[in-house]
Specification:
Blueprint: E1 6-9, H1 15-22, H2 28-31, H3 40-50, E2 55-62, E3 65-76, H4 79-82, E4 84-93, H5 102-116, E5 119-124, H6 131-139
Protein name: GNAT family N-acetyltransferase
Keywords: Acyltransferase, Transferase
InterPro entries: Acyl_CoA_acyltransferase (IPR016181), Bact_Acetyltransf (IPR050832), GNAT_dom (IPR000182)
Length: about 150
């Protein structure tokens, strides 16, 4: 079934499906709001992303049904001899589609996009409370090589 999986840069019409995927996990279910129509903040955030080069939401679909997504951002830097890095966030696979290698194909797509953007590394953060995600990322070849810190400023 996953042979038909196609990735593309999301458009505003994909936002309800993206939020549907984000809300499926334990943390997203407390942070996201899926209503019809969607809250305006999602469209405003999407428009801000679209206006920033190198910041895209990527969706994967099978037969026009969105089954996975992630945010892909290219960060240009001075460190590492002026290299760029790719940051991915909001990685989700539809809970009804897990175990079908969709996540592995999603990671391969992210790596291909990073290579196409001449990034020297791909990075992400994941909440400490997501051990299944940690196992998935390690199985996909990522290493937990750094410690990340955040502060909630809301």
């Amino acid at each position: 079934m996953t042979d038909e999986l196609q990735f593309k840069i999301a458009c505003a019409e994909d936002l309800p499906e993206i939020v549907r995927l984000l809300i499926q996990d334990q943390l997203g279910s407390t942070r996201e709001v899926l209503t019809d129509p969607l809250p305006q903040v999602y469209l405003e955030a999407f428009e801000a992303m679209e206006s920033q080069p190198g910041n895209d939401y990527i969706v994967g679909a099978i037969n026009d049904r969105i089954v996975c997504c992630y945010q892909f951002t290219v960060i240009h830097g001075i460190s590492r001899s002026g290299s760029s890095r790719a940051q991915i966030e909001g990685v989700r696979v539809d809970s009804s589609m897990r175990g079908q290698n969709i996540g592995k194909r999603l990671m391969a797509d992210a790596i291909e996009r990073a290579q196409a953007n001449r990034c020297q590394l791909l990075q992400l953060t994941t909440d400490k409370s997501r051990p299944d995600a940690h196992r998935f990322y390690e199985g996909a070849g990522l290493t937990a090589s750094h410690i990340g810190y955040k502060v909630d400023i809301t």
